[in-house]
């Protein structure tokens, strides 16, 4: 039996002349990617018995799409024989063309059957893939995405589906039923994470999409565990579990391999100490050592990354692993290293400055002030006896977004206003925050209090891709977005000593609760955004699932942001 692909290929970091293709193979070997007259080969590296390669093609022509093929040890493995899909393409960036950035977060893999559709809704990543494949068969490629930004919860390590439950049960069969055995319904070890990624990304339609659209990624809490790094006490409590060390090392290590390595340019990867250790044969031991250090010392590694698309800069900001939550009175969303990197990256001299953070920077007003109030209470603003109940409420309601890190929120707000005022270079046409996590989508427009600025500031949220909220949660989030709720929570926060932010904002679109994908189009100084969904008619969706038809994709909302 030959050495084939276990997962991939996935098209990752792309520039005007380079493209990186990631694969996981069934065994050690040499992977070769061929695109036209360009070829790149790489030997696999190994971690915990799994084998990976990243092939970097160079010398590509900006904007010119070219078919590519993959072989392992000289044997063709992609495209698969008899594949019904159009050829996978490499499309280097063309900075002179409009940039179309597809983005979204929170995807639960399903079997797309009627029961799954009724519970989770249509998988918009799959629906988009089917539409793109159909368009390519018809020769239409003009409006294809420049890149896909997956900004959080690419996998759910703590909310697994039935196939993953069955895998864990079989893998752990015969393990002594100790008092503190790993949770039966959560992944813990590297092999389990590897299987979780395989199940999440091996859906044939999604696999083809990832093979042909450049993809950049960021983790959020469910990639590791719900409420990950919410607070110092959360970190202390979770560490009491004997399975936590293998869980966090496996979660961070697998994230580096499956998601983060492909975010890096070939030059950045060559300088990365994790890459060097793996290429030198350090294997699972080196990966575990790195991951444990990244958990224990968040400042030891920077997960955030920056990219250029046309005349615009996109910052992909880690808001999870780099957090400093040791002291409730001095919390930092980013930690010192992350704060410094983001502050240095928030500059003008671009058409648009895009800040992609898994967590929305601007929440509906009621939620924002509730989280700010809760942070103050947990820090002792209303006395020591309320800090414990405040922490309990923080965990129950997931009060852990930017608003719950007021020092960080204020610092980023001030930097953005300096960008808009032209104090950090020529002001961009817009500063746009991208976010996910909250399982509903919306558009918020913001302005500086007390002064005018020509730069548009807005929050664009697209969530979920496939994991819609139950009706009761929808009603709660709708209430949180009402103006009267915002006024009440603002009064509460003021009583706890929270200052009024220098930005004022309001929702001008949404909330929308359908599964969705959004497309941000940047064309010179013009910016526009469009959300797409499968209309929420559950009987129709179930009928489509039974018949095997392509789920309909329709425009949910569209807004011109600048120009």
Record the SSE blueprint.
Blueprint: E1 5-14, E2 19-25, E3 30-35, E4 38-43, E5 45-47, E6 50-57, E7 66-72, E8 75-78, E9 89-90, E10 99-104, H1 114-120, H2 124-137, E11 147-151, H3 162-171, H4 190-201, H5 204-212, E12 215-218, H6 232-239, H7 244-260, H8 266-271, H9 273-279, H10 283-296, E13 305-309, E14 312-317, H11 335-345, E15 352-357, H12 365-378, H13 387-397, H14 406-420, E16 430-435, E17 441-448, E18 456-461, H15 471-480, H16 483-495, E19 503-512, E20 516-523, E21 526-533, H17 538-547, E22 554-562
Helix pairs in contact: 1-17, 2-5, 3-4, 4-7, 7-10, 9-10, 12-13, 12-16
Q: State the fourth-level CATH superfamily of the domain at 303-562.
A: GpdQ, beta-strand dimerisation domain
CATH class of the domain at 303-562: Alpha Beta
Any idea what the CATH architecture of the domain at 303-562 is? Answer: 2-Layer Sandwich
Spatial ordering of strands, largest sheet: 13-14-15-16-18-17-19
- Cα distance spanning the termini: 58 Å
Biggest β-sheet strands, sense, barrel: 7 strands, mixed
Percent in strands: 15-25%
Q: Using only CA atoms, what is the Rg?
A: 23 Å
Dominant shape: globular
Explain this structure to me?
Pfam families: DUF7800, PhoD. Strands 13-14-15-16-18-17-19 form a seven-stranded mixed sheet, covered by helices on one side. Strands 12-11-10-20-21-22 form a six-stranded mixed sheet, covered by helices on one side. Strands 3, 4, 7, 8 and 9 form a five-stranded antiparallel sheet that branches. It has a domain at 303-562: GpdQ, beta-strand dimerisation domain (Transcription Regulator spoIIAA, 2-Layer Sandwich), CATH 3.30.750.180. Helix content is 33%, strand content 25%. The model has no long low-confidence stretch (mean pLDDT 94). α2 packs across α5 (204-212) and α12 (365-378) runs antiparallel to α13. It is an alpha+beta fold and 563 residues long.
């Amino acid at each position: 039996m030959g050495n084939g692909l276990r997962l991939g290929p996935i098209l990752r970091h792309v520039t005007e002349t380079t493209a990186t293709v990631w694969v996981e193979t069934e065994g050690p070997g040499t992977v070769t990617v061929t695109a036209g007259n360009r070829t790149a080969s790489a030997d696999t590296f190994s971690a915990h018995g799994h084998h990976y390669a990243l092939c970097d093609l160079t010398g590509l022509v900006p904007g010119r799409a070219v078919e590519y093929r993959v072989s392992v040890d000289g044997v063709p493995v992609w495209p698969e024989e008899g594949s019904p899909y159009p050829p996978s393409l490499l499309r280097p960036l063309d900075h002179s063309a409009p940039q179309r950035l597809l983005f979204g977060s929170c995807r639960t893999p399903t079997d797309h059957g009627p029961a799954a559709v009724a519970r989770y809704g249509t998988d918009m990543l799959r629906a988009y893939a089917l539409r793109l494949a159909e368009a390519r068969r018809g020769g239409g490629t003009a409006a294809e995405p420049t890149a896909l930004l997956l900004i959080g919860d690419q996998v759910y390590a703590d909310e697994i589906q039935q196939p993953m439950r069955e895998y864990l049960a079989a893998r752990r069969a015969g393990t002594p039923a100790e008092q503190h055995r790993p949770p039966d319904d959560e992944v813990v070890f590297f092999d389990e994470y590897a299987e979780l990624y395989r199940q999440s990304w091996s859906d044939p339609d999604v696999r083809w999409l990832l093979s042909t659209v450049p993809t950049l990624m960021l983790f959020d809490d469910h990639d590791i565990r719900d409420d990950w790094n919410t607070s110092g006490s959360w970190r202390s409590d979770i560490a009491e579990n004997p399975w936590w060390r293998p869980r966090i090392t496996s979660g961070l290590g697998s994230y580096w391999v499956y998601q983060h390595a492909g975010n890096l340019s070939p030059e950045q990867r060559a300088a990365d100490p994790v890459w060097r250790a793996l290429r030198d044969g350090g294997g699972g031991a080196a990966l575990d050592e790195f991951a444990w250090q990244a958990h224990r010392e968040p400042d030891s590694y920077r997960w955030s990354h920056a990219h250029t698309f046309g005349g615009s800069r996109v910052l992909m900001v880690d808001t999870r692993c780099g957090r400093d939550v040791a002291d409730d009175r001095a919390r930092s969303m980013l930690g010192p290293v992350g704060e410094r990197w983001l502050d240095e990256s928030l500059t003008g001299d671009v058409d648009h400055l895009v800040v992609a953070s898994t967590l929305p920077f601007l929440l509906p007003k009621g939620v924002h002030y509730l989280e700010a109030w809760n942070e103050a209470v947990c820090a002792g603003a209303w006395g020591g006896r309320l800090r414990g109940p405040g922490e309990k409420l923080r965990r129950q309601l997931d009060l852990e977004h930017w608003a719950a890190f007021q020092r960080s929120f204020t610092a980023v707000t001030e930097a953005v206003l300096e960008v808009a005022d032209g104090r950090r270079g020529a002001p961009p046409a817009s500063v746009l925050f991208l976010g996910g996590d909250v399982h509903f989508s919306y558009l918020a427009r913001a302005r500086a209090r007390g002064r005018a600025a020509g730069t548009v500031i807005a929050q664009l949220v697209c969530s979920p891709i496939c994991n819609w909220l139950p009706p009761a949660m929808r009603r709660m989030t709708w209430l949180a977005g009402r103006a009267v709720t915002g006024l009440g929570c603002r009064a509460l926060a003021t009583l706890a000593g929270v200052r009024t932010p220098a930005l004022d904002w309001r929702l001008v679109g949404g909330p929308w609760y359908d599964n969705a994908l959004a497309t941000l189009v940047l064309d010179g100084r013009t910016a526009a955004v469009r959300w797409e969904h499968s209309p929420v008619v559950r009987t129709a969706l179930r009928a489509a699932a039974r018949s095997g038809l392509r789920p309909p994709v329709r425009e949910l909302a569209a807004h011109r942001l600048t120009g």
